[in-house]
């Protein structure tokens, strides 16, 4: 397999061609990952290294982003609920917003904007230095050696990060509810457990895994097809982030709509 894209004429044709090559690369990468896992040829050292690298660049920013989001939700909900005399229902809003949507989207932003940038830069630099071409000449499977470990690492980090930011966001809202609004903790927990469901958290974890997989596929695709020196790497990173963001929000809309159909809302059974 060669990692060179032909030049398309016209922006519309270029977008369509890029999309087609991305789909083909994604299918090949997923099949390659499954084949490597079944054959037990996945490099454990490279997988652990990539998992730690992705987690190191994503964990801190995800918490720094989620805590302000949780506080903002708590402040907004607390002010509105206080005006209508429903301050005790802040736990229900937290269950809907943070567990149902915000936690997975924060993971998506981190995987696409932070981890994806790092992955694309690393592979793009290897491509520019002709390391990818050298690996192909030596008969080394690039998907097996470089892409598969990053996909596994992204999945592991996405799941762990989703659980972590969910806990951080709920905790921030809980502390604001008690120490700022001076409302009973029992009201928060009662409505949180009443309207929060395990299925919502499982769906959030599934979304995070999908977002991490999609972001990594886009980042590896753009990195392996980078060309034009340092400027080409910068362009590839920029395109990877924009493309990943667009795909993530499209997929999130589709999954949320599908989930609302499969799992009825509380009180609509």
Task: Give me the Rg, rounded.
Answer: 21 Å
The computed structural class is mainly alpha
Query: What is the N-to-C succession of helices and strands?
Result: HHHHHHHH
Number of separate structural domains: 1
The share of residues in helices is: over 70%
Based on CA inertia axes, which overall geometry fits? elongated
Strand element count: 0
Pick out the low-confidence regions: none
Helical run tally: 8
Mean pLDDT: 83
Secondary structure elements and pairings:
Elements lengths: L10 H29 L4 H41 L5 H39 L2 H7 L4 H38 L5 H11 L2 H27 L4 H34 L7
Helix pairs in contact: 1-5, 2-3, 2-5, 3-5, 3-6, 3-7, 3-8, 5-7, 7-8
Q: Describe it for me?
A:
The protein is an all-alpha fold and 269 residues long. The chain has one domain (11-262). It contains 8 helices and no strands. The longest helix has 41 residues, at 44-84. It starts with 10 loop residues before the first helix and ends in a 7-residue tail after the last helix. The mean pLDDT is 83.
Name a few traits of the molecule.
mainly alpha; about 270 residues
Short description:
It contains 8 helices and no strands.
